[in-house]
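[09:14] KT: can someone run the structure on this one? pasting the chain below
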Amino acid sequence: MAFDVQKIRADFPILSREVNGYPLVYLDNAATSQKPRAVIDSIVHYYTNYNANIHRGVHSLSQEATDAYELARKKLQDHFNIKNAYEVIFTSGTTHGINLVASGFTKILKKIRIKYRCMYHTV
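[09:31] RB: done, structure tokens below
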């Protein structure tokens, strides 16, 4: 199976641009990752149809946004064979996700008493 770079590039609308006469090559993914057409279309669909806070309102838009959010969580649960849908957590980005994991480890480590013994020996 060949790796078709042009097909992958075609999924990302911004990569159809040229910069200084050359096809755009974007290497700053640590700061911002470019979005494929499917993600852009999904975001536009959300803002066009559901733009409301999830799990907070009793009005129709909030309920529809919550339903769409939970459906996405369920799809990921099924795709990755996760036991419970609530185990799927969405974050605002990589830094937020890493900080959430680090915070969790901090809480776990506070509950574990680590015992160690230093042994010195001379040669």
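[09:33] KT: thanks! The chain has a mean pLDDT of 87.
[09:34] RB: yep, looked fine to me
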